[in-house]
Amino acid sequence: MLFGVCPFPSSDCCGVNMTQCLKGSSTDLFYIRIFFEEDTKNIQKELAEVYLFKADMTCINWEERECLKNWDITDMRNPGYNDLKDSETSNDDSDKSSETSEEFDSKELDMSCEIWEEIDDLKDAILFMDLARDHSVSYNRVTASELGGFIHIRGEMGKIIYSYHVKTDTISLFSIPYPMLPTSHVFMWECRLEDDHGEANCIADSKVEMFRTNEISLRPDTHDGVECNESYLLNISFDLLEMIMELCVGVEYMNFRATCKQCLLAAPLIRWSNRTSIRRLQKYLLVSPLLMVVDKKQDIITFTDPMVGDNYFMKNSQVLMDVNNKICCSRFGWLLFESIHWNCLVFFNPFTNDLWQLPKAEHIFDSLCFSAPPTSLDCMVVGFTTSCVYIHYMNREPAWRTLDTHPHNVCSSSFYGRDLYALCEQGELIVINNLAREDYSWKLVETEAPKGYCRSSTRYFLGNFDQHRLLVSVGAYGEAVEVFKLNESIRKWEKLNSLGKHAIYICGTTCLCIEAKLPKMENKIFFPRLHTKNRKVVFYSLDTCMYHTFDGENIQEHLGDFCGTTYHLSFNVWIEPNWS
What we know:
- This protein is mostly beta strands.
- Among the domains are: 17-175, no CATH class; 188-281, no CATH class.
- It is 9% helix and 38% strand.
- The chain has six helices and 39 strands.
- Strands 5, 6, 7, 8, 9, 32, 33, 34, 35, 36, 37 and 38 form a twelve-stranded mixed β-sheet that branches. A four-stranded antiparallel β-sheet has the order 1-2-3-4. Strands 15-14-13-39 form a four-stranded antiparallel β-sheet.
């Protein structure tokens, strides 16, 4: 008997290559679907999305499923799979697909999908997958709760283990031999002072009530009759405690409020809005760009300070619920991405909630970049496809125009003033001068590819360094990091051993090179990764040629590559705080 169709993920999938498997345990059947990033010449294939589903076999009415025996699955396309290449198929194939689809009864299809439940927390269980051999899967229960909740995936090359934590949607990398099982991510709201003897209930049980008015009311589950048996760590004056609470934001404020009775009295219940949170964040977030992570499961936005490691929480905006993690550009405190809800490209400032819609484009862009904030008359937006380059002049023209029709695979791009630089996968550099004028000039610079120590698949990031074009190369699993500047007179990339007083912040779609506000942040490259043990942001030092994290005023943790680090699968990007 045909059991039914495979379940479909609740969100759009960003990966290209897919692996799927089934595993039964007792009366449960687990279905795992893994998507990988596109495996091209210059990009190392990495995990892009992981989805987990479960079916309770005891709840299935097998008599009702007798109707599924009549399904003809010969040459059947997945009816729920969204393939962007449909338009390229022939008319005959389209007719065949439509005829096959007509054979399905929608009720039968719905019935086969209803048995699956998408799992967002494995709790005290773990799954193991071996992609290096036979794609075998095993399921186990663990006695230590901090070891549960993971899907451990051995990579296809057999050298790396990806530990996916289902609840936090994060992946930790470990090299083989596997030294230890990863510990679960400890959230701020799960922590309390050791000597509080349970006066405050676990913060993980706190209730976060969302309102349609785009406000958040944080109400921790604390009892009114809290005994005043407080920790000696909070033996400070009430006025000083109130000053501390003034610096707390959102969920952070709730955590502090639930710690003890004294904090409860010093922190009155606040109905939080984004503007309330922003006013407090604005007081002390001026040192560095922040690592922004959109957690759709918990409906919050987390901003992480790479220097001190503090996390600041805000309610997730509806605008960011459908953001594409792979096609997004961040500059000047603004995000540029394609919104499914608005059916167009949008500019969004998460610090002010300002939203600017762009005219609808006729094409799906592979990458984007822009020259200035959308509030500026000089703002230009450029979108790249494999065959064309398109431009839109914000505040000047109502529609997009075609800029170039030469086929190029652009992997990174950057504006310098009114000049556009775009790096192609083959190593060529597209240069468009005076883009704001009608008589702009277009040329293809045959630059010699940078030669360094990276021997494996390399990812490139293009940016600006003073008056020079900057290129950052990162080897597979971070095994080698190098920085180059373009010598335009001889058309060659020259290696840089020092950034001077500058710091670089890179992620999948963004490369920010700015002057460091503090000396200890100079000559470093910050990645959207956390150290698996101390949960601090990882950076690469050009002085030591190693990876480190900050520990207050000190630098600690020496890593040779990305093994031992954790990264988010949820949408994440570096963003400069901007309240204007």
